[in-house]
Amino acid sequence: MGQHVRAGELEIWTEEVGRGPDVLLIGGLGDTVESWQFQLDGLADRYHLIAFDNRGAGRTAMPDGPVSVEVMADDAADVLRATGVASAHVAGFSGGSIIAQELALRHGELVRSLVLQSTWPVMDAYLRSWARFVHWLVEAAPSERAFLENFFLDIYTARAHNNGTVEKFIEEVLAFPHKQSTEDLRRFLDAFIDHDTTDRLPQIAAPTLVLAGGLDPTARPQLCRAVADLIPNAVFEVLEQESHQPFQEVPEEWNSRVDAFWRNVGPGS
């Protein structure tokens, strides 16, 4: 069962499962702990996993004041401290991977290793235009279902759309009782459009695995590779037949690859 923990000035909704080396999971745009369900179920026999709802998503409120990646990275650090974790393997996807980068830069002592799925150092013109399209789509779509059907075109593979996986995800989102407001989604998205870690990524000392989806039209492999090239000794891999969120589409493959990386890094002190 999840619970709110006091993290800085926020009550942040968290889910903790399993025993073993500590892992922090950071979600992307509007995503809640449920986005990591395949990892919470599939890795709990080997790891102590903590997932949480970012500010303005799910069961964590969006406070007044500026929203920035730096603030959300501080939230993640506060979650670790509130749960008594001195250092964790950190995994983030999409916007959550950018928060994870900033967490490693601002609170490096808390980060044992990094897994960055579908990431970038700075949005290029294409990705920035896509983000602005989502900003418009969330308001213009005639229904929540219509928004999800169109947004998910760029998130999941054609395979997942054709085999019913995406429809299942849509039904789960529609039934979820803790809806994110349009304004909160836009504020979250805006925090990433001009965020740039290019000059600072070489400062990251944590062992890092960068994963790209070969079919991802948004955080394309060349953007992910740019991150791997900037972080010393980072490992870069492309899941050729996957899109933006392979940890949901092929969770066993993703979990196995990440588990191997974490085992190679070791649990730390």
Automatic annotation (TrEMBL):
The keyword Amino-acid biosynthesis does not apply. GO terms for cellular component: membrane. SUPFAM superfamilies: alpha/beta-Hydrolases (SSF53474). InterPro entries: AB_hydrolase_1 (IPR000073), AB_hydrolase_fold (IPR029058), AB_hydrolase_sf (IPR050266). Keywords: Hydrolase. GO terms for molecular function: hydrolase activity. Pfam families: Abhydrolase_1. Residues 23-244 form the AB hydrolase-1 domain. This is Alpha/beta hydrolase. It comes from Prauserella flavalba.
